[in-house]
Amino acid sequence: MKLDLHIHSHASDGACSPAEVVERAVAGGLDVIALADHDTVAGVRPAMKAARGLPIQVIPAVEMSSAIGGKDIHILAYLVDLDSLALTALARRGTERRAARMAEMVERLARRGVMVTHERLEAQRASPATAFVRPHLARALVASGYAASVPDAFARFIGEGCPAYVPTKIAKPREVIEAALAAGGVPVWAHPPARTWQDHLPELVRAGLAGLEVFRPPGRSASVTSLEDAARRHRLLMTGGSDWHGPAAGTRLGDFYVRAEDVQPFLAKAGM
Hints:
Elements: E1 2-7, H1 18-27, E2 32-35, H2 44-51, E3 57-68, E4 71-78, H3 85-111, H4 118-122, H5 134-143, H6 150-158, H7 173-182, E5 186-189, H8 197-207, E6 211-215, H9 222-233, E7 237-240, E8 258-259, H10 264-269
Parallel strand pairs: 1-2, 2-3, 5-6, 6-7
Antiparallel strand pairs: 1-8, 3-4, 4-5
Helix pairs in contact: 1-2, 5-6
């Protein structure tokens, strides 16, 4: 069984529709995927509908944004109730704060002579209901000729520590973990930052964190080993995924996957 438990669609900052995500996942030989858009579950039902009759299972998920000490911490909430009031309230707050954050980032860029029009930015998201996220701005910077690529835009303008970077400031990690649990979900720390995850892990575990995203491209490394050790020490579930946003990066769904035996306790939790 091949799984990818961290994929985005254009319901947030991915390039493909939920149905196209499913189509590409099947073509890539994946058996199980989790659609985990930023602070919204809007793409999950369309993905599940698209998967009917196909040899693939879609796990409902959402990647929830939080920050601590000016650093972003993202929590993947798996197996959530899509109608949860706790998730709905957090999503509404996220949409409002992301809009304010985007306006501040555009203003910071403008003060440096980097002019991104509202029309150019608006063209990067799927619909007016889609919350603004940094990849939208990165693609607008590319389209406006200020960056050679999305990674270049992050590296020079909007990545952490860059001139126009603004933390998300939607919620604290404890709040999003509580919301995930209230929605019946399994909260997992997404892509724990290599240099600082040890500092915050005990606090997140006390708040109810259930797992760590251990397995990520390009594959096994020293950081994977240390995360595996931490997961076992704290009795946390282990998950893994590509964090795929679209084909522009030169990767296809299915290029990276985790095996069932790597995430068996998580699968047991999911009743699979």
